[in-house]
Write a structure and sequence with these properties.
The chain is 28% helix and 25% strand. It is of the alpha/beta class and 333 residues long.
Amino acid sequence: MKAYHFYDAPLKVCGLPFYHGEKELRRLPQALIDTLGLDGRIGTRTPAVRVRFRTDAAHFTVHMTLATLMKDSGMSMFGAQSATVMLGDWKNARFGGLATPADYETKKASVGITKGEGMEDVTVILPRNEVVADLWIEVPDEAQVAAPTPYANGPVLYYGSSITEGGCACNAFNAYNMLISRHLDLDFYNFGFSNSAKGELAMADYINTVPVKAFVMDYDHNAPSAQHLWNTHEAFFRRIREKQPTLPVLFLTMPAAEYSEGKKARRAAVRATYDHAVAAGDKHVWFIDGETLLAGADAWLCTVDNTHPNDLGFHRMAAVIEPVVREMLGICR
């Protein structure tokens, strides 16, 4: 058997800005984590990061070692601590298996995969909640391993809350931005930070250094109040616009089955950023009202706690957001 770690060519790490084969997986540089006062684990963990390759191995094994392992009251181990293996071309990817820790004391996990003969793409989606110390594959000595098929579109950067991060999908593959990625064959960066994205200008400055084709701005949930949004939301957007005057930007408000007066006040602040941009002649902005994201029959069944979407909620979110992202990127059907 021969082994390839995530940092070994021809494996490719997707979803991390500025990753060039380092042996450490992290979303943000340590200096920015310190500036923002982020919990180191939240700043370093890698939701929606994908390790991709092609192989003709009919059978192979995926191994993972976690640096952290913590229980999440809102998510199962399948959704929070497991690596998900998907097989085939990205738009039609099928489930291959889960590398899942045996318990909350065991930081190592492995899964044997059977995919059949012939060269196929393989995508390993890293856990949402944990810092990954290592991930590697073992294939037979005679197997071919090659670079993955490139994404057709993107990348898009999503900035927001724990919902953006993927909470509380039952599996990383079911988060709304991952669903959109598959439907549009789209690379993306997940800058969802649980209880930590508050529209800090230092984050806007960092985002301005990441080459992307579109930006989704979705930190409504993490702002401590409507006034905080009035104070920060438009300023954050303007900081992006100073450096990227034609970047397509989508403003989202929080998904909810019904908006209270408090949610309406928050929505007004986000909507004002959009309205002011349009009034100033900006033709590269879009707005989605979060009250439409879960709408329809059984809207109240779309979350696990009246805040975080379940799989039904994420599916509805993707159905509303995807056409807008498609328009932003000029992707024809």
